[in-house]
Amino acid sequence: MDELLIFLTYVAVAASSISGALEARKRQMDLVGAITIAYVTAFGGGTVRDLLLGRTPVFWMADPALTVAAFVLALVAFYRFDRVSRKLLIVADAVGLGLFSILGATYAFQFNLSPIIAVHMGVVTGIFGGVLRDVLSNQIPQVFGQSAELYATCSFVGTTLFIVLYFYHLSSMSVAAVVGASVIFAMRLLAARFKVTLPSP
Amino acid sequence: MDELLIFLTYVAVAASSISGALEARKRQMDLVGAITIAYVTAFGGGTVRDLLLGRTPVFWMADPALTVAAFVLALVAFYRFDRVSRKLLIVADAVGLGLFSILGATYAFQFNLSPIIAVHMGVVTGIFGGVLRDVLSNQIPQVFGQSAELYATCSFVGTTLFIVLYFYHLSSMSVAAVVGASVIFAMRLLAARFKVTLPSP
Amino acid sequence: MDELLIFLTYVAVAASSISGALEARKRQMDLVGAITIAYVTAFGGGTVRDLLLGRTPVFWMADPALTVAAFVLALVAFYRFDRVSRKLLIVADAVGLGLFSILGATYAFQFNLSPIIAVHMGVVTGIFGGVLRDVLSNQIPQVFGQSAELYATCSFVGTTLFIVLYFYHLSSMSVAAVVGASVIFAMRLLAARFKVTLPSP
Question: What was the ipTM of the complex prediction?
Answer without folding.
Answer: 0.93
